[in-house]
Predict the 3D structure of the following.
Amino acid sequence: MTTNADIAALRAQAVPRGVPATAPVYVAGARNAIITDVEGREYIDFAAGIGVMNVGHSHPKVVAAAKEQAEQYSHMCFGLFGYESYVKLAEKLNQHAPGDFAKRTFFMNSGAEAVENAVKIARYATGRKAIIAFEDAFHGRTYMTLSLTSQVSPYKVGFGPYASEVYRIPYAYCYRCPLAMSYPSCACACAELLEQAFAKQVNAEEVAAVIAEPVQGEGGFIVPPPEYMGKIKAMCEKHGILLIGDEIQTGMGRTGKWFAMEHWGVAPDIMTTAKALGAGFPISGITGKQEIMDAVHPSGVGTTYGGNPFGTRAGLAVFDIIESEGLLARASVIGERIRARFKEMQKTYPVIGDVRGIGAMAAMELVEDPETKKPAGDFAKAFRTKLYQNGVVNIGAGTYHNVIRILVPLTIEDETLARGLDIMEETMSQVSTI
């Protein structure tokens, strides 16, 4: 029998050290929210492939779509010969994306490519060059997207110089307010930092777009106050600036809505999707107002593999599954259960400084002291390691690497979810006594 150690030894000889290796575990199979490694051990999936498997691993409808597509053709390049699934998936995104206006969608391969193209289109449509991003943001690891990404380690160390005309302002991180104020008495004053940026960093008339994750993912599941995003959008409109909504981690039902911007009634001018859109098949989408998307000349955007037929067929299956299985409502139920459990744990373990999230995005930020809020990065690392050993797949987050984020499949069974949360509480007890 091949063991995890066997594959780990081969990996050490074949794969560079820069590729992440969170746990020395190698997968043999996965079904819904259970992953089985090559030695037959099962793990409860509380990561969902970093937010990709919203409809669970190997959902029968996704598997059937992939099998049928494999028997028809595997690749065509949409720019040479079109195919119906691409057009139908574009139509689905146009229908479900926020905003009561005509939209257009095209597809790429990854979230980073979607963001790259959103920036290109924003610059083309406005004739402006500057982009404003937020602190604690993550938008990808390509040259442009890494320039937009905030976190330095491990993403940006040694990879500069970065793209020009990128500016940054603080986000509405209420637990660590950039203005040392408290919500709601602050009246969401941090939104005004955008106007300050126009005075201190870049002329508003030179800004093509502001790009924002409606809920920051890698930054630590930071949920802004309800009025924040609306204030940002209003300032963008005042100055003729486009708002790019990065829904790569938040989209496709994760927050209890199709897209997180819906929670605040905000319609971005351009929206990016990826991750859960393809249920594990590589695909990303760029959706935007018709006049903006149609501004680019023919053949100005595109790629060989973008919107590949496996991805588009899987995407159509994902829309069907979310709708037919009521997964938007399920996401809200799941998130409420997780956060309620975390808040109960918080009463016993003061290392849990903050519990937050929206829908089935749930997180706890770990601190050495609840008063000083000093990040407990080492404790968080030890907790994540022990959690893997105890049989729960998890991932960290946060600029200070001290956030435990939970992204379970929205199809997870109640019993499996409860068992995973029990293991998390048991693990917290074990690590706290070390």
